[in-house]
Write a structure and sequence with these properties.
- The protein is mainly alpha-helical.
- It has one domain.
- It is globular and about 45 Å long.
- It starts with 9 loop residues before the first helix and ends with a helix.
Length: about 190
């Protein structure tokens, strides 16, 4: 019987946590969260965090099978994912809007849990990470991030006052550069370049 599944690697956990943190970009999303809160009156932080966590874990374990059903391999998805991550990073660094999302009137699950937290970029990133890192380490990265997301959702107004618009903008750009490097690495590793 193979017990490799239970071996945790701190470096992999840190890397996957940072990648997922950068792609979710919850700190950069604070202005959007505040706007959604103003529209809806309140945000159900617990529900949004639980649903987003569930979606991410489900996709981590079943995403590859879903791809096989439609005839795609993980490497092709990882390459596509690296391009999506690259575009998201360009949005963050250059302040562009490549992906346009319309905010519906309710914020309970949509658009907060999906697609703001667990969106296409996050799902693509999870499968891309799975090509290089152990599943249990990615799982720990997801859980750590979702605990942080819950904290941020509960304290958005305090954090906005603490960081200010300039501070949030600097964080967003810094994580955008990290994401650019990650996108390039994923592309190279899955194309053999």
């Amino acid at each position: 019987m193979n017990f490799d599944f239970m071996k945790f690697d701190l470096n992999q956990i840190l890397t996957t946590t940072m990648v997922i943190f950068a792609i979710i970009d919850i700190l950069g999303s604070i202005p959007v969260v505040i706007q959604l809160r103003k529209k809806a009156g309140h945000i159900e932080s617990e529900k949004a965090s639980i649903v987003a966590t569930g979606l991410m874990i489900l996709f981590l374990f079943l995403g590859e099978s879903l791809l096989k059903v439609i005839g795609l391999d993980v490497e092709s998805f990882a390459i596509a994912g690296s391009i999506v991550i690259f575009c998201i990073a360009m949005e963050m660094v250059l302040g562009l809007t490549i992906f346009k999302e319309e905010a519906p009137e309710t914020v309970s699950i949509v658009p907060l849990a999906f697609p703001l937290i667990a969106g296409a970029g996050t799902m693509t990133t999870l499968l891309s990470l799975k090509t290089e890192y152990q599943t249990q380490n990615i799982l720990v990265g997801i859980i750590l991030n979702m605990l942080f997301v819950y904290f941020v959702l509960k304290n958005t107004e305090r954090l906005e006052r603490l960081f200010g618009k300039t501070g949030l903008n600097i964080l967003r750009k810094a994580f955008g550069v990290i994401l650019l490097a990650i996108a390039i690495k994923l592309f190279r590793n899955n194309t053999g370049l």
